[in-house]
Amino acid sequence: MATFGTLSDRLTETFRNLRKKGQLTPADVDGTVREIRRALLDADVALPVVKEFTAAVRERALGDEVNRALNPAQQVVQIVNDELIGILGGQQRRLQFAKNPPTVIMLAGLQGSGKTTFAGKLAKMLEKDGHTPLLVACDLQRPNAVNQLQVVAERAGAAIYAPEPGNGVGDPVKVARDGVAHATRQQHDIVIIDTAGRLGVDAELMKQASDIRRATQPDEVLFVIDAMIGQDAVNTAKAFQDGVDFTGVVLSKLDGDARGGAALSVASVTGRPIIFASTGEGLDDVEPFHPDRMASRILD
Ligand code: GDP
Questions:
Q1: CA 6 to ligand 1 center in whole angstroms
Q2: Which stretch, 166-170, 224-228, 231-235, has highest mean pLDDT?
Q3: For atom 9 of ligand 1, which residue has the closest CA?
Q4: H or E element at residue 220
Q5: What angle do CA 284, 8, 240 make, to 5 degrees?
Q6: Of 77, 192, 208, 278, which has the highest C-beta tally within 10 A?
Q7: From the alpha carbon of 152, which atom of ligand 1 is closest?
Q8: Residue range 253-275: mean pLDDT, rounded
Q9: Phi-psi region at 218: left, alpha or beta (left = phi > 0; alpha = psi -120 to 50)
Q10: How far apart are CA 152 and CA 123, in angstroms?
Q11: pLDDT tens digit string along 187-210?
Q12: Is 287 near ligand 1, meaning CB less than 6 Å away?
């Protein structure tokens, strides 16, 4: 994963210098924390997250746990690792299923974030686990969006519910509701609702997404965010949190060469877990998100 290349290199360098020392003085700790702070900011991690993170590392690194350690530098690396896992959400959070099927999963996010592609990826993953997902096309804003979901559904070998072509603009809330009813009738155990995305956050889009949420009572609302959007990640995530109150995050385009700040900020800023990471355009390029594995990758 190239996303964290620079951040990873800089932290490795910081720790290499630290390992050359034996016992650590408070000045050593401060110097290290300053370097970590700069590396995180340069990686586009949001300022409040950086502050909280470095304060926690500093406090623990100046405390007894490091003073008493046989290898203080290694102990600091361990603390950074723990705190990284913390800002990435702590424990792995799995997708939640309804007690009574169908489980309804709604996707939301900006246009181009990778929602439609992820819908196909999710369908394919779930099918491998023996589920029978139905994709529901509720992006009726863009003329080509329904068609695009149809292509993705075909590639994933998944069923799709879409309004008939030529039926005018259509009402996405009705399509969502009818889609869930259709899934129940046809005994699909999971419904994946693709919603409209716009280039920027806008009130009408949020209202529509929120209406779909209310009408279908999803078990999960997944906010798909492009890891490449850098500093915009925090504001976009907050806007979607206010607008649709998502239950989990999908980080997409983690294969890109962006600096990774979105990934490191979004769980912490919204308090919502990252559930999946998307790492390419192919339908198999997706994996459940593990905070501990991601932290290890960054610190490797
Ligand atoms: P939507 O507008 O949110 O539905 O976004 P799309 O699913 O249409 O994706 C927008 C573009 O990003 C398409 O060209 C996808 O092939 C591409 N894309 C989606 N997910 C990923 C990913 O994880 N990595 C990369 N490199 N490209 C992706």
A1: 24
A2: 224-228
A3: 114
A4: strand 220-226
A5: 55
A6: 192
A7: 7
A8: 86
A9: beta
A10: 10
A11: 999 999 999 987 777 888 899 999
A12: no
What is the distance between the alpha carbons of residues 108 and 26, in angstroms, rounded to a whole number? 46
Which distant-in-sequence residues (6+ apart) come within 8 Å of 137 by Cβ?
Answer: 145, 146, 149, 150, 160, 161, 162, 163, 175, 194
- CB of 278 within 6 A of ligand 1: the answer is yes
What's the whole-number average pLDDT of the chain? Answer: 91
Q: Which residue type is seen at 242? A: D
Q: Is 299 annotated as a binding-site member? A: no
What number of residues does the chain have? 300
Predicted pLDDT of residue 2:
42
Tokens 């290499």 correspond to: 16
pLDDT band at 167 (very low <50, low <70, confident <90, very high): low
ipTM for the whole complex: 0.99
Looking from the CA of 291 toward its CB, the CA atoms found within 13 Å total 24
Backbone angles phi, psi at 225, to 5 degrees: -130, 135
Check: CB of residue 241 under 8 Å from CB of residue 268. no
Residue 111 to residues 208, 226, 257, 280, Cα–Cα distance (Å): 14, 10, 20, 17
Place of tokens 């003085």: 25
Please give the full DSSP string across 85-135, using - where no structure is assigned.
HHHTTSS--PPP--SSSPEEEEEE--TTSSHHHHHHHHHHHHHHTT--EEE
Check whether 112 is labelled as a binding-site residue: yes
CA 118 to ligand 1 center in whole angstroms: 8
Quote the Cα angle for 44-47-48, to 5°: 135
CA distances from 159 to 90, 149, 183, 187 (A): 35, 11, 10, 12
Q: Measured from the CB, is residue 195 less than 6 Å from ligand 1?
A: no
Rounded CA gap, 199 and 118, in Å? Answer: 18
CB atoms within 10 A of CB 293: 15
| Structure confidence by residue, pLDDT tens digits, 8-45 | 899 999 999 998 888 889 999 999 999 999 999 998 89
- In this prediction, residues 127-153 reach a mean pLDDT of 93
